[in-house]
Design a protein that fits this description.
alpha/beta, Rossmann fold, Alpha-Beta Plaits, six-stranded mixed β-sheet, 10 helices
Length: 315
């Protein structure tokens, strides 16, 4: 049974009268990589700062590896490694000098510092640039250094806030691979507004919008939701839509052009075979019968739009 590393209950944070985070609850266990997804300004960074103890919640409770973050802050923070959206680097130092300094800040025993620095450099692919000044390194390497300082003390929990912003595609792929590798031994929270980031790196996903948590699911569960509920139908001759009224799983049929249709149906009951049989028997001629897969972007937009509509209605 995996260890429960983070338990956040009913977190809220107000700035004057503005509610940046509104009654958010979730948990993280060892071996999980949790994608914390939301548009800019949704409350992601505020939530990350509360989890790290940099910002006190207006209400709610945070438990870090069994320690209450407010009552036992030192013990709780020893279990955390944090990379903010802008890596906290001293750019006039070499990579080795900076990581040695961070190891001392983490209060690692002197005899363990060299081994911890070497391990972090190896995991983050920094051995080839260890003696170079940070200011002369690319943004991709600087992000790696930021992750290295977060994992130096081998924390149970690693929190990464927008770790791939501004990186090129190769650098993004390398950071994603590193995040997945870290997720095998630790619990990782990855905050991002980039949709493919979650699919590529995470085992779980939750979506926050306007301060509220509107979606929590495993990646497998998300993929099931992404399975099509629409079939594109193209025929040689126009069809009689009334012929499909007897198929109970069909919700609606949208005619997008002559002989081109979108058939919307319930996820759990795919009517493709019945549709094909009717078209063949009627002699309309099947030219295309294709499921249309929902993208994560479709789900994200649908959820955030529904929530915005609901909020407006309540107001």
């Amino acid at each position: 049974m995996s260890t429960l590393l983070i338990e956040a209950k009913n977190l809220s944070r107000y700035y004057d009268k503005h509610c940046a985070v509104n009654d958010v609850s979730f948990s993280l266990s060892q071996g999980e990589v949790l994608g914390f997804l939301g548009p800019n300004g949704a409350g992601k960074t505020t939530t990350m700062q509360m989890l790290c103890g940099n910002l006190a919640p207006s209400s709610g409770q945070i438990s870090i590896n069994g320690y209450d973050l407010l009552d036992q802050p030192k013990q709780a923070k020893q279990c955390l490694g944090y990379l903010p959206d802008t890596p906290p680097l001293y750019k006039d130092l070499t990579v080795n000098e900076f990581l040695q300094y961070c190891a001392k800040l983490h209060r690692l025993p002197f005899r363990e510092i060299d081994n911890a620095v070497n391990t972090a450099k190896a995991r983050c692919g920094l051995n080839d640039v260890a003696e170079r000044l940070i200011v002369n390194l690319s943004k991709g390497y600087q992000q790696r250094i930021g992750i290295a300082q977060a994992i130096l003390h081998n924390p149970e929990i690693i929190i990464l806030d927008e770790p791939t912003v501004g990186l090129d595609p190769i650098q993004i792929r390398e950071i994603r691979s590193l995040i997945k590798e870290l997720g095998t031994d630790h619990g990782v929270i990855l905050s991002t507004h980039i949709l493919p980031e979650v699919q590529a790196s995470c085992s779980h996903v939750q979506i926050i919008n306007q301060g509220k948590l509107i979606f929590k699911e495993t990646i497998d569960g998300l993929n099931q939701r992404m399975n099509t509920a629409t079939i594109k139908v193209v025929t040689r001759k126009p069809i009689d839509l009334n012929m499909f009224s007897a198929i109970s799983s069909i919700c609606s049929i949208e005619e997008i052009a002559i002989t081109r249709y979108l058939v919307h149906h319930h996820d759990h009951n795919n009517p493709t075979e019945q549709i094909a049989e009717i078209i063949v028997n009627a002699g309309w001629g099947i030219q295309e019968l294709t499921p249309i897969k929902k993208s994560m972007e479709d789900i994200f937009i649908s959820l955030t739009t529904e929530q915005a509509t609901s909020s407006a209605a309540e107001a």
